[in-house]
């Protein structure tokens, strides 16, 4: 009789249980891919809403008149900057979802834990708040300014041959890279070779996020988006230190790069994507009595 009662109780409990689908919605970008064979292949933008082009091949802008060179450079770079910023913000949104879940539940959803710990490994930290600070993108004006300094407004060999906008070095012989013509102290120097401008920009943001030298920059970035406060904290990006940040600050101001901080991706290229993270069985407490 006791076994029968237990069996009936379990049957009632199971029949009353409901399955809760745990969903997460983000916005996925559907970019346009293009190659640049001449300056006419660079897509101009006429207002602050732009098409997210990913350029997989570029040309040197060295021979163009100065004003045209600068214009074409920004048109090539800005879509990649905005796309990278968007993707970083979507990761932050997922982290905020995980934080919200953990305030109400004593355990991680498995797919969330995989997502989280992959980011911990990638960004070299082990706490959600710190991870969000590392992921937070800084203004486009700073990125464009550094890109212009490091590539000579799109004139460098590394830019043309390897989509390397920021001259980021390679220390891994197993990755795609380009040998510099001049080494240092009899040591060869290599820079990374990327499949697109967007990949170069993404790697730049990750470098800023991971390297200890930019810790002060990241701390200020968590509080402010003001280039005037952030640029001086990039003095360790270059061997010339404060001279570098003074050059960067002048370049941003003289070329009015801050105007691009208000640009955005055309919403017609954004698609809502709903991800099912898990299905959980919930047992209403009132059925236990």
Q: Per the principal axes of the C-alpha atoms, what is the gross shape?
A: globular
CATH topology group = Lysozyme
Main sheet? 2 strands, antiparallel
Number of strands: 8
| CATH domain class name | Mainly Alpha
Task: Tell me the strand percentage band.
Answer: 15-25%
Uncertain residue segments: 1-18, 282-289
First-residue to last-residue Cα separation: 19 Å
In N-to-C order, the SSE pattern is HEEEEHHHHHEEHHHHEE
CATH architecture classification name: Orthogonal Bundle
The strand line-up of the biggest sheet is 1-8
Task: Name the helicity range.
Answer: 40-55%
Work out the count of structural domains: 1
Helix segment count?
10
Mean of pLDDT: 89
Structural class: alpha/beta
Domain Mannosyl-glycoprotein endo-beta-N-acetylglucosamidase-like: 116-261
Protein name: Mannosyl-glycoprotein endo-beta-N-acetylglucosamidase-like domain-containing protein
Pfam family, one: Glucosaminidase
Organism: Marinifilum caeruleilacunae
What is the compact description of this entry?
This protein is of the alpha/beta class and 289 residues long.
Name the descriptors.
alpha/beta, Lysozyme, two-stranded parallel ribbon, globular, MGlyc_endo_b_GlcNAc-like_dom, Mannosyl-glycoprotein endo-beta-N-acetylglucosamidase-like domain-containing protein, Bax-like, signal
Can you give a write-up of this model?
The protein has helices spanning 2-16, 66-102, 110-123, 128-135, 140-151, 157-162, 197-210, 215-221, 227-230, 242-254, and strands spanning 18-29, 32-35, 49-50, 53-57, 177-179, 190-192, 264-265, 270-282. The chain has 289 residues and is of the alpha/beta class. The protein has a single domain, classed as Lysozyme (Orthogonal Bundle), CATH 1.10.530. The strands form four sheets. Strands 1-8 form a two-stranded antiparallel sheet. Helix 2 crosses helix 5 (140-151), helix 3 crosses helix 4 (128-135) and helix 5 (140-151) packs across helix 10.
